Amino acid sequence: QAPDSFPPLRNEAAVHVLRGRMKGIQGHCNSCYMDAALFSLFSCTSVVDSMLFKPFPLCDRNVQSILRDEIVNPLRKTGFVRARSVMHLREQLTEKGQCSSFTNAEKDPEEFLNLIMHQILGIEPLFKLQSGGQKEQDCYCYQIFMDKQEDLVVPDVQQLVERSFLSSNLKLVEIPSCFIIQMPRCGKEYKMFSKIIPSLELDITDLLLDSPRECCVCGDVATLECS
């Protein structure tokens, strides 16, 4: 355990600490969905570090301390987290949640994030979506859904998010405080793409509801949008 707090890894330090054998979060008993989510959320960014320190109204301090002291701090300090630390968290999630299979079954990352962020820590939703003028929906994670498209062989994240929003007629109500996106590569059986290129920056201009944008014909502020 690492009781002290460590900042997220950046640049050369990230490469030095995280590259090589016995690095990352050790998998055990279908934990890959949680390992990948935790690594993405905490290894190299502090955007959701409030999960580790802030005493939210519904916050379970035991789960918060396990997350901080047994997983995030060791990951940032040594680049390695043992499977038993993640299992400790999974046991707590099973105890606090409504599902008895968090310790042994493969889950959807969105189910894990909703449970730990909403029900256990009591964090406010990270962003809001609207579909076709319907009621706004509070979200903690966005899962990409789209039909197979032959022109996308090795897509990047920007392409996937744009096409997924278009096919589902979705818009972001406002600029999100944090935009967690689940790629269409989950599950044991079927993966839509063999590889996905990470987009180091994400342009959400066309994804925002009622955002002023440039007309592609004349260059002035657009008044109509064609999908």
From TrEMBL:
<dbReference type="GO" id="GO:0005874">
    <property type="term" value="C:microtubule"/>
</dbReference>
<dbReference type="GO" id="GO:0016579">
    <property type="term" value="P:protein deubiquitination"/>
</dbReference>
<keyword id="KW-0493">Microtubule</keyword>
<keyword id="KW-0378">Hydrolase</keyword>
<keyword id="KW-0963">Cytoplasm</keyword>
<dbReference type="InterPro" id="IPR001394">
    <property type="entry name" value="Peptidase_C19_UCH"/>
</dbReference>
<dbReference type="InterPro" id="IPR038765">
    <property type="entry name" value="Papain-like_cys_pep_sf"/>
</dbReference>
<dbReference type="GO" id="GO:0004843">
    <property type="term" value="F:cysteine-type deubiquitinase activity"/>
</dbReference>
<feature type="domain" description="Peptidase C19 ubiquitin carboxyl-terminal hydrolase">
    <location>
        <begin position="24"/>
        <end position="204"/>
    </location>
</feature>
<dbReference type="InterPro" id="IPR018200">
    <property type="entry name" value="USP_CS"/>
</dbReference>
<protein>
    <submittedName>
        <fullName>CYLD hydrolase</fullName>
    </submittedName>
</protein>
<dbReference type="GO" id="GO:0005819">
    <property type="term" value="C:spindle"/>
</dbReference>
<dbReference type="Pfam" id="PF00443">
    <property type="entry name" value="UCH"/>
</dbReference>
